[in-house]
Amino acid sequence: MYKQAKKYGRLGDENYRKGKGATAKMNSVKKKALYGVKEAVLQRIYENADTLAIHEIDGNEFWFTDFGTFSFHSPLESLDLPYGQVEYQDTLDNFDPGEEKEHTDNTLKESLLTIESELGINANDHLEQTHVGYGANSYFAGWTYLGE
Q: What is the pLDDT of residues 57-101, one digit of tens each?
């Protein structure tokens, strides 16, 4: 999902430069929704993390949650996690992983459907707006397989 969010961000920038405002907005809405899903999932499962820490990167603080096979950085203000369970604080030069982590082969659709069925978190609930206008038409900004 993280790679897809980054892809939506890149596509949004490209479409904006090309003058495709509605498409750029659609990409931006989906990117932000995926990050919202990530935060909702981490908020729900952080107690299962092998490590809960705070990393300072480029002067900003991030939660670091490590689940062994997968690890995540999230802005400190995006999650309401207990400081009392923080194992350590560290300063990093950048976001480059220190070791290779496993990546899933699931499609975005498979991942979003699994997250919805297992955790009850629907990506469409994290859309900053549900529709994007293009001329006289309005298009659903989310994933139709999750419902409108």
A: 988 999 999 988 888 889 999 999 888 888 878 888 766 655 555
Q: What is the DSSP letter of 144?
A: G
**What's the sign of the alpha-carbon dihedral 112, 7, 79, 56?**
positive
Q: What are phi and psi of 61, to 5 degrees?
A: -100, 140
**108-138 core/surface letters (b: 16 or more CB in 10 A; e: else):** beebbbebbeeeebbbbbbbeeeebeeeeee
Spatial separation of the C-alpha atoms in residues 2 and 70, rounded to whole Å:
11
pLDDT digit string (tens) for 111-138?
A: 999 999 999 999 999 999 999 998 889 9
Q: How far apart are the first and last CA of the chain?
A: 20
Tokens standing for residue 26: 């659609």
Q: Which helix (H) or strand (E) holds 3?
A: helix 2-17
